[in-house]
Design brief:
heterodimer; A: mainly alpha; two-stranded antiparallel ribbon; two-stranded antiparallel sheet; 4 strands; B: mainly alpha; 3 domains; five-stranded antiparallel β-sheet; 22 helices; 5% strand; Urea ABC transporter permease subunit UrtB (chain B); ABC_transp_permease (chain B); BCAA_transport_permease (chain B); signal (chain B)
Chain lengths: 377, 535
């Protein structure tokens, strides 16, 4: 068994092709093709695809813990939002004195609240490296504390789901408060610069799309590496029969905690890439409904496959973009039906259906091949 | 004859002009004086009319204040103008239309208006309407002057209605606190010490603040203030406890169905909140139908009617869900959560499409509106009280079903050990369907109750769902006592934290507390004991 190869040769081919499309073709179609031409990628699609890439990263993280370790976190959106808030804080500090109140240090909402100086937890966010570090560390720290407490006391299954849901709900309530110092209801918005580049400019947007695609690709390889490792196999065993793994002498706590924290980090980075592309982060991102939606992306694509998670995130979100524009009242019916149909009829997702179809075709070809000589004789 | 009258009037006028005002002047004279030219006279008349305590003065004073009081040039009589007609201000006799040249408008200024309103409020103490008297007696509290005290004293002698009497005594004591003999003041303060009214506290604090108050008065005020503070603190605690129990009973209503289904089937029904919502919309619909069909005096009972209907509607939807979706997902609790979440989205959107997204108002029937003042400032709202009673009633019925019926026996058996129960011949599939129906039906009834304390909207279920999950997780499954203890303690903790931390932070603290609690007891407060291994 090739334990060290991350992907099959064909897999690498597909991976690189997809990367080429996202990183080279799409940006080129936006920047180089003539506007209006059939090759041209309109400006509004660039951040949209970038957004999908971030969602796909989030879905990857979800698949890593749910598909491989059996942890259905209904609070994965919280890590995403925390990463987003860290990035948002950096972007707020970059506004400088170009805000409505022209205060060189305080963001507008703090001036509005009559605050005189920056709270301690906003210190350092004017430096990109610090913000980037926090994007990873804050979600990781929360995941570590929550995961350590939960896994140590063997909180599993629906209990864990409810606990994570309560966590994101609590964070949502907390972030809605103005006194928290994160902009309350309105969140953080009106960003101007990112690393000295204008956030709104088409070039930056293309750059962000490329960054998201790279982030997605790297996360995929990382997840792929984890699930292929010995730890990944322990996780899968935990998913299928936790008690048995325990009886065999493995401690589930460390393995689960590791993937949980890694998933939180990936979610945080996804959130950080997401915020400059949509231009706002607000407490609504913490809402439990958002987190549950991530699970359906993974389920639609096919869980425990990683590729499926990416596929699912793209499919469901493209459908969402289209449906909420074309027939907004139908969207919730569609999403609800998706939850029901996928869990009832497609437990292995789109990818599972495709694989079934492939094996069936291969089997029928095999029987055909086997049948031919019989006919010949 | 008319000449005689005129002479008599002239004589009277003469008399009134020379007589000593305090004893000879009658009600009619003071009314006439209201229309005098001199503002000093008018002021005196307005004040005296208030002190006289004769309710007949009210229209004249009101008219003067509104600029509708006129004086007849020929004899100086005060007239009230109403449209184009005039009335005699003293007797109220109609005089018909008068030529504009015969009358003059009586001028009024702000000082006069102030005196008039004080007099009017004193006069309301003698109004024929009991509610007006009560309001006036309560209002007099805010204006503790010797004049008020005199008026209150007079009112005290003529008053019959007990609650008005109490209010008068109360306000009288307040008026006596600020001025008068030291002994009287101390007595008044002591009589006030037995209340728990924040207004009294302010009054006494004001007494303490006045520098020239005698030391006996100050001491009495200090003692009374301490006892009032203590009582107010107690009322505050009681209020918090009541609100906590009220919140807890709401949580219990919302969570009990969830706890039952989770206990029996091991699945979390994410659409449970929507069952509550369906119940609330059932109440709304029943209300509409009742308003259209029932006579007005019976409409108030629509709520009683909607309880069983909501149970049937939500219960039927629950059984449908179990038969149509959930039974195919047994053994996969996480997938069940996702599927039921999908159902909840569909139900929300369906209700939004049928009833639109606006909040719907389910009116409180008359017997549920308002409340009563249990003790100074501790107000108990009827709808809250009824919900607490209803909640415990429902809990009792569920306990009876669980303990005394064969269905309950089957449910408990399946909760303890599904395989063993099946082996003993219990039809587990039917138990599941009925349990789900029961849990959903209970949620529907909870929805009817919740429609009485808040708006009914498609998102109603979402408000309660996270909380009810936490109740179930906190209390442990398959145990009504656990659900009861969990919801009441969560409600209490929430309300007790609220004054210190604010509503939102208090809630966040409760959530964090439960997250930590689960580490300590992963299966809740009252975990089911048994010899089984997970999975």
């Amino acid at each position: 068994m090739t334990r060290h190869s991350l992907l099959t040769p064909r897999g690498w081919l597909v991976f690189l092709a997809a990367g080429f499309v996202l990183i080279v073709l799409l940006p080129a179609a936006n920047r180089l093709a003539a506007p209006g031409g059939w090759l041209y990628l309109p400006d509004y699609l660039v951040p949209l695809i970038g957004k999908y890439c971030c969602y796909a990263m989030l879905a990857l993280a979800m698949d890593l813990i749910w598909g491989y370790a059996g942890i259905l976190s209904l609070g994965q959106g919280a890590f995403f939002a925390l990463g987003g808030y860290c990035m948002g804080m950096y972007l707020m500090r970059q506004i400088g004195d170009r805000g409505v109140y022209k205060n060189p240090v305080l963001p507008d909402f703090m001036v509005f609240l009559n605050w005189k100086e920056l709270p301690w937890y906003w210190q350092g966010f004017d430096m990109f490296w610090f913000a980037a570090l926090m994007v990873v560390l804050v979600p990781a720290a929360l995941a570590f504390v929550l995961g350590w407490l939960a896994f140590r006391s063997r909180v599993t299954g629906v209990y864990l789901s409810i606990i994570t849901q309560a966590m994101t709900f609590a964070l949502m309530l907390a972030f809605f408060r103005n006194n928290m110092g994160f902009g309350g209801n309105n969140g953080l918005t009106d960003f101007k610069d990112l690393l000295g580049l204008q956030v709104q400019s088409p070039t930056t947007r293309v750059g962000l799309l490329i960054a998201s695609a790279v982030g997605l690709g790297l996360s995929f390889l990382l997840c792929r590496w984890i699930v292929g490792s010995k730890l990944g196999r322990v996780c899968r065993a935990l998913r299928d029969a936790e008690s048995r793994v325990r009886f065999l002498g493995y401690s589930p706590t460390g393995a689960k905690l590791f993937v949980f924290v890694v998933a939180a980090m990936i979610s945080g980075i996804a959130g950080a890439l997401y915020v400059p592309q949509v231009g706002i982060i607000n407490p609504g991102e913490f809402s439990p409904a958002n987190s549950i939606e991530i699970a359906i992306w993974v389920a639609v694509g096919g869980r425990g496959t990683l590729v499926g998670a990416i596929l699912g995130a793209f499919i469901v979100n493209a459908a969402k973009t289209w449906l909420t524009g074309a027939a907004p009242e139908v969207w919730l019916f569609f999403l609800g039906a998706l939850f029901i149909v996928v869990t009832l009829l497609l437990p292995r997702g789109v990818l599972g259906v495709m694989r079934d179809w492939q094996t069936r075709r291969a089997a029928s070809r095999a029987t055909a091949v086997a049948a031919k000589p019989v006919e010949a004789t | 004859m008319s000449r005689l009258k005129a002479i008599a009037a002239a004589l009277l006028l003469l008399l009134s002009a020379v007589a000593v005002p305090a004893y000879a002047q009658t009600f009619e004279d003071w009314v006439r004086k209201l229309a005098a030219d001199d503002f000093g006279d008018k002021l005196e008349a307005a004040e005296k009319l208030g002190d006289l305590g004769d309710g007949r003065a009210v229209p004249a004073l009101k008219a003067l204040s509104d600029g509708a009081l006129y004086v007849r040039k020929s004899d100086g009589a005060a007239l009230i103008q109403d449209g184009s007609r005039y009335f005699d201000a003293a007797s109220g006799k109609g005089l018909g239309e008068l030529p504009a040249a015969d009358v003059d408008k009586v001028r009024v200024n702000n000082r006069l208006r102030g005196v008039i309103s004080a007099s009017l409020s004193k006069l309301s103490l003698f109004s024929a309407d009991r509610a007006t008297r009560l309001a006036a007696a309560k209002q007099a509290f805010a204006n503790p002057t010797p004049q008020t005290a005199a008026a209150l004293d007079r009112a005290l002698r003529s008053e019959k209605a007990p609650e008005v009497l109490a209010a008068i005594r109360f306000s009288l004591a307040a008026a006596q606190v600020t001025a008068g003999e030291v002994a009287d003041r101390v007595k008044a303060i002591e009589s006030l010490a037995g209340t728990a009214d924040p207004q009294v506290r302010n009054l006494l604090a004001a007494v303490l603040d006045t520098r020239d108050a005698p030391s006996e008065v100050r001491q009495a005020a200090q003692a009374a203030l301490t006892s009032i503070e203590r009582r107010l603190a107690m009322v505050g605690i009681l209020e918090n406890v009541f609100q906590g129990i009220s919140l807890g009973s709401v949580l219990l209503l919302a969570a009990v169905g969830l706890a039952i289904t989770f206990g029996v089937m091991g699945v979390i029904n994410m659409a449970h909140g929507e069952m509550i919502m369906l119940g609330a919309y059932t109440a709304y619909s029943v209300q509409l139908v009742c308003r259209a069909l029932l006579p007005a005096d019976l409409v108030g009972y629509y709520l009683v009617l909607s309880l069983p209907i909501a149970f049937l509607v939500s219960g039927a939807v629950g059984v449908l869900l179990e038969r149509g979706v959930i039974r195919y997902l047994y053994g996969r609790p996480l997938e069940t959560m996702l599927a039921t979440w999908g159902i909840s989205l569909v139900l929300q959107q369906a209700v939004r499409s049928i009833f639109d997204a606006q909040n719907k108002e389910v009116a409180n029937p008359e017997w549920m509106t308002g409340g009563f003042d249990l003790m100074g400032g501790f107000f108990v709202a009827w709808n809250r009280l009824y919900i607490i009673i209803f909640c415990f009633l429902m809990l009792g019925i569920i306990a009876l079903v669980l303990r005394r019926t064969s269905f309950g026996l089957h449910m408990r058996a399946v909760t303890q050990n599904r395989d063993m129960a099946a082996a003993m011949g219990i039809p587990t599939a039917r138990v599941d369907a009925l349990t789900f129906g029961l849990g959903s039906g209970l949620a529907g009834m909870a929805g009817v109750a919740l429609s009485q304390i808040g708006n009914v909207s498609p998102n109603l279920g979402q408000i309660y769902i996270v909380d009810s999950f936490l109740v179930v997780v906190f209390g442990g499954v398959g145990n009504l006592v656990g659900t009861l203890v969990a919801s009441l303690s969560l409600g209490l903790i929430n309300k007790i934290l609220e004054p210190f931390a604010g509503a939102v932070l208090g809630k966040v603290a409760v959530l964090v507390f439960i997250i930590l609690f689960i580490q300590w007891r992963p299966r809740g407060l009252f975990a089911l004991k048994g010899r089984f291994v997970e999975q």
